[in-house]
Design a protein that fits this description.
With 829 residues, the chain is mainly α.
């Protein structure tokens, strides 16, 4: 899954099917990230705001009243309900019956007591006491206390003993209780009634009639009126009994709690719960108008009905969920196709592909949270996705990621309209292209400022087009600054280093840090191998200029070349640029040993790069800058010693591989050209161009550039840039006359005859002569490969048009006296 399919159909299905499964999983998950309670996307429309869209009803629906207003109206209706009273005239009859029962008991008990007294022959006093005791006991049974021996109590007892008096008292009570039939109510119940009228229901099936509360007779008023009505018709004893017995009267009116509660519930239910009705096709909200309270209530009612129908505005919208999934699939499909077509390396590398889709998922999840909170589109961290995608891969892929995210957001109801895509595109695209403007992490505030400016510009444009009011522009600017700060901090400070490690990719920020000449490896190279250090700097200048000209990564080329020869730190003295003149340790080695040392600087460089944790893109320069070239000087020297048939050329070839990128291909050419140009005498522009042409053509002929995607057009531009830089580097300087010593004056002491000692003062001859005289000439091609040997003394590119770089047969080296430590003798595998 993390490699290109080997060619079999099964491998292709697994490779591409796994990525398609990732896309399908994300497409199913994204709709769930957005709040399901707002499927219609109307939450952004509030009273007093300007509507961003026109909304028409897709079906008929009622507009309910505001809950607070409805509750207030129901409370008012409940308070206005007239209490229900039940009239029970039977309670008057019951009162009369209780009094009659009392007198009937007296009528039976008194004669019986008198008969017992007579039968027992009791004295008159004892008999009277017995009868009075029976009367008091009966009176106590109904709550009349006649046990005291006072005058009133005695009079009452005496009154009850008389049959005629009892009859008169019974008649007065019966007449008084007839007043109960007019309706009498307890005062405590009447105090609970706050209304002016009451409804009196007579009987279970009687008609209800409204009576003023003021006309209702309290039970206390009834008893008081009855006592006053008796007047002087009864003697004192009878009047006292009347006042007590009249209390046996029961109220005939009482509050009917069940009927009252039912009436109040009916009153609450009678209040209409809707305040209007909207017909299908009727306008609810008009775009670019101020939303009123009534409009908002109508819109909320519409949304509630939509939710009640399962989140679909019309019956054909039941497939809305499927459509949303297809939308995400289509937008991700564009991203995957662009990656597959233009950045196959990202598509084939599973970690990189995962990061690309993961950025979309992270932003979608954040957008869902923003939608759930009712936040501004400027809070969606699309800048984070654009920034990281551009930094890890390139700005165009970052642009595609931002476009994919914007397309998905436009399909979400909450982000419908122009505002959300305008704001997200502004922030995301600016982040994708501006991330390459910062050269160090400390310049992150420049990126924050640019992204914030993009949000401000988007807000201003929305104001000018009527989609935003001025206040919303300020909100967008504030949230945009917050978003830019958080995205830049997380992206540059946290996300980018983690994703670099996860994808094993190197960003510009990391390359810029590696280009610091105070890095330990570069400082060590400058101190221990100054010639190699100077060579690397010169080659880096050539590579950077050429890569810029052909559109390759100039920063990657420059940094990679800084480290391409760090392996020479293992044995710096064995490389010509670090050797003092006349001292060549290769004179003591066999050709195989010398070739092995030269080959090993690639292996040693990779080991050092691994220890220093240099990224793979830098290691590529170490392993590819020589490709699979032959170390020709020592190969020919070995053949001269043992014959052509006895020498295996693979013992004298660099391990490779050949350059795999444009940057490493340019580095190979620059490495050769810079090394050869150092030994070029009289470096005129023509001779420099001829040297460059020969070295480039040689790499082409040997197939070293077959895998690096350099075109002939690229090579032509590269050669032009090399010539331009080297011509400036080796421009002709004015020869200032040297002061003449007295001994050199004509006729002075030590004067040399004309023509004698010629060449001793020649700078080129002096520079190429060692302690034992001039060394044997070597080819510029060998010098360009970094091969060492005798210091070059031959100008291989004469002005006369002679064949350049005529390579003489090298003289065989003497056998080495001793073998250096750590260098194997003979051939190497």
């Amino acid at each position: 899954m993390n490699r290109p399919p080997a060619g079999g159909r099964r491998d292709a299905w697994v490779h591409h099917g796994f990525r398609a499964g990732m896309v399908a999983g994300i497409a199913l998950a994204v709709p769930l990230m957005f709040p399901q309670s707002t499927p219609t996307g109307f939450d952004g429309i509030d009273p007093g705001s300007v509507a961003r869209q026109t909304i028409n009803a897709d079906f008929d629906f009622d507009v309910p009243k505001d809950p607070d207003r409805l509750r207030e109206q129901q409370d008012e209706a409940e308070a206005a309900v007239t209490p229900r009273l039940r009239f029970e005239p039977a309670r008057a009859d019951s009162s009369v019956e209780r009094v009659n029962a009392f007198f009937a008991q007296l009528d039976s008990i008194i004669p019986a007591a008198e008969a017992r007294v007579a039968a027992d022959g009791l004295p008159a006093a004892a008999g009277a006491a017995l009868v009075r005791g029976e009367v008091r006991q009966i009176a106590g049974g109904i709550g009349i206390d006649l046990s005291a021996e006072g005058v009133i109590d005695s009079l009452q007892v005496e009154y009850l003993l008389d049959g005629t008096s009892r009859g008169q008292l019974r008649d007065e009570l019966a007449m008084a209780f007839e007043g109960l039939r007019e309706g009498v109510i307890r005062g405590s119940e009447l105090a609970d009634i706050s209304s002016v009228n009451v409804v009196v229901r007579e009987g279970s099936a009687g008609d209800d009639r409204v009576r003023p509360v003021g006309e209702l007779v309290r039970l206390g008023d009834f008893t008081r009126a009855a006592r006053e009505g008796v007047g002087d018709r009864l003697p004192p004893g009878g009047a006292a009994l009347f006042q007590q017995l009249v209390l046996m009267g029961q109220p005939t009116l009482r509050i009917d709690q069940d009927a009252t509660r039912q009436a109040r519930e009916q009153a609450r239910a009678a209040i209409p719960q809707v305040e209007g009705f909207v017909l299908e096709g009727e306008r609810i909200i008009t775009e670019n108008t101020v939303v009123t309270e009534e409009d908002h209530r109508r819109l909320l009612a519409y949304q509630a009905r939509i939710l009640g129908r399962g989140g679909a505005r019309t019956t054909s919208d039941f497939l809305r969920g499927v459509g949303m999934v297809l939308l995400v699939v289509s937008m991700l499909g564009i991203l995957v196709f662009a990656t597959f077509r233009f950045r196959r390396d990202v598509y084939e590398d599973l970690p990189s592909f995962t990061v690309l889709l993961g950025l979309v998922v992270i932003v979608m999840a954040s957008a869902g949270a923003v939608a759930a909170a009712g936040g501004s589109p400027a809070l969606v961290p699309v800048a984070l996705a654009g920034l990281l995608a551009a930094a890890l891969f390139d700005s165009l892929l970052g642009l595609v990621v931002v476009s994919t995210i914007t397309g998905i957001l436009m399909g979400q109801p909450y982000f419908a309209g122009l505002a959300a895509p305008m704001v997200t595109v502004a922030g995301g695209v600016t982040a994708a292209f501006a991330v390459h403007t910062i050269r160090t992490r400390s310049q992150s505030w420049v990126l924050v400022a640019l992204i914030t400016a993009a949000y401000v510009g988007a807000g201003l444009l929305l104001v000018l087009t009527g989609h935003y009011v001025l206040g919303e522009m300020g909100t967008t600017a504030a949230f945009g600054f917050l978003n830019a700060t958080v995205c830049t901090g997380l992206g540059v400070g946290v996300g980018l280093p983690l994703l670099e490690a996860f994808t094993r990719r190197t960003t510009e920020a990391s390359l810029l840090e590696l280009s610091d000449m105070n890095r330990p490896l570069l400082r060590r190279l400058a101190r221990e191998a100054p010639g190699t250090y100077a060579h690397s700097i010169n080659v880096a200048n050539l590579v950077e200029t050429a890569c810029e000209a052909i559109g390759a990564d100039s920063l990657q080329g420059r940094v990679g070349v800084y480290y391409h020869d760090i392996g020479k730190l293992e044995r710096p003295q064995y490389f010509i640029e670090n050797q003092p003149r006349g001292l060549n340790p290769h004179d003591r080695l066999t050709p195989w040993q010398s070739a092995e040392i030269l080959r090993d600087h690639v292996r040693h460089g990779l080991v050092m790069a691994e220890e220093a944790r240099l990224p793979e893109v830098v290691k590529d320069f170490i392993r590819e800058h020589h490709g699979t070239q032959l170390i020709r000087y020592f190969l020919e020297k070995a053949r001269a010693q043992q014959g052509v048939a006895e020498v295996d050329p693979s013992d004298f070839a660099y391990p490779g591989p050949k350059p795999q990128s444009k940057e490493t291909g340019v580095a190979m050419l620059a490495d050769a050209v810079e090394a050869a140009s150092r030994v070029l005498s009289n470096p005129s522009p023509e001779r420099i161009r001829a040297l460059i042409d020969r070295l480039v053509q040689d790499r082409i002929d040997y197939g070293e550039l077959d895998d690096c995607q350099l075109t002939y057009r690229d090579l032509r531009i590269v050669k032009q840039e090399f010539a331009h830089v080297l011509t400036g580097l080796y421009h002709h300087r004015i020869d200032y006359p040297k002061p003449t010593a007295p001994a050199d004056m004509p006729g002075g002491p030590g004067q040399t005859p004309a023509g004698e000692g010629a060449g001793k003062g020649d700078p080129e001859t002096a520079a190429t002569a060692g302690e034992e005289g001039p060394s044997a000439p070597i080819d510029l091609e060998q010098a360009s490969q970094g091969d060492t040997g005798p210091i070059p003394a031959l100008d291989s590119l004469p002005d006369s048009g002679a064949e350049p770089d005529a390579e003489p047969d090298p003289e065989p080296d003497p056998e080495p006296a001793t073998e250096p430590e750590g260098v194997a003798s003979g051939r190497t595998d």
